[in-house]
Each structure stands twice: as C-alpha cells, then as structure tokens.
Amino acid sequence: MKPQIFDGHRLAGPIRSGGIEWNVRLEAFNAARQADLDHAQRHGIHFDQPKDQFAAAYAAAPKGVRDEDERLTELTYLAEDALMLCPSPDASAFALKVLLAHGRCLSLYDNIVFAEAQRFSGRTSR
Predict the structure, then answer these.
(1) β-strand partners of 10
(2) Which of 18, 36, 118 is nearest to 79 (CA)?
(3) Dist CA 44 CA 108 (whole Å)
(4) In the list 9, 16, 81, 83, which could disulfide-bond 25, CB 3.0-4.6 Å?
(5) Considering Cα of 6, then 7, then 10, then 14, what sign does the dihedral take?
C-alpha cells in the first residue's frame, strides 16, 4: 500500500476502521517525518546534532530551506495529530503514542493517552 500524503486536517481518501485506519495514519506520519528529515539532511541540518550545532546549521540555511522545513514540520505535526486521534489497535500502537506524546512534551495529548491507558488496563480510576 502506497503511503497517503496528509492533506490539511484529514487523510486523503476514505476513512477505514480498526487497525487498518491506524496503519494508514502511521504510514502517512512516517512518510511526512521522513520527508522532513530527508530535506533537513540534504541541507546539512541533522536532528541528532547537539542543540547549538543544530541551531547554527538551521540559522545558516537559506530562507527558502527554512521555509520548506517549516512547511514539512507542520505536515508532520498534522499527521502526528491524526495518528494520535486514531484509537490504538494494540499495545504496541499505544506505546508509540506514549513515546510521541513524551517526545513533543505536549499536554494536549494527555487525555488521549490517559483514556487509552484506561481502555488497555480495564480500569477507570485508581
């Protein structure tokens, strides 16, 4: 299956149910993230650099490169948001959501992660 490119706030194409929908959204997220990483690396920006080196490489990049990076980053965030809104079909998918939420340090994902933790644990409170 060819990854679908994320279009605005929804995936292009029909909505699927269960694990299939998760897989479609995961492929879209992975494609968007890889496009962002590839673009940055082509222009000497490496996300695994120490922060000061990353900041210097980003600042030294031409405006067009920075603009394209911002566009690709926004597409990645939109694809990530779509993935986070899709119910996790299994514990592995849930674990990825926890890592993504932690990686971006976003409290906006807290309710999603908490609700799914309750669903997987079978508990509603402590």
Answers:
(1) 7
(2) 36
(3) 32
(4) 83
(5) negative
Region 53-70: mean pLDDT is 93
Alpha-carbon torsion (28, 101, 112, 90), positive or negative: positive
pLDDT, tens digit, for every residue of 7-49? 333 333 444 455 799 999 999 999 999 999 999 999 988 888 8
pTM of the model: 0.76
Indicate the Cα dihedral angle 73, 76, 80, 86, nearest 10°: 150
Are residues 89 and 19 in contact, defined by beta-carbon separation less than 8 angstroms? yes
**DSSP run (H or E) holding 106:** none
Reference 73, options 126, 35, 24; nearest CA is 35
- 52/76 Cα distance (integer angstroms): 23
Q: How far apart are CA 54 and CA 49, in angstroms?
A: 6
State residue 59's pLDDT score: 92
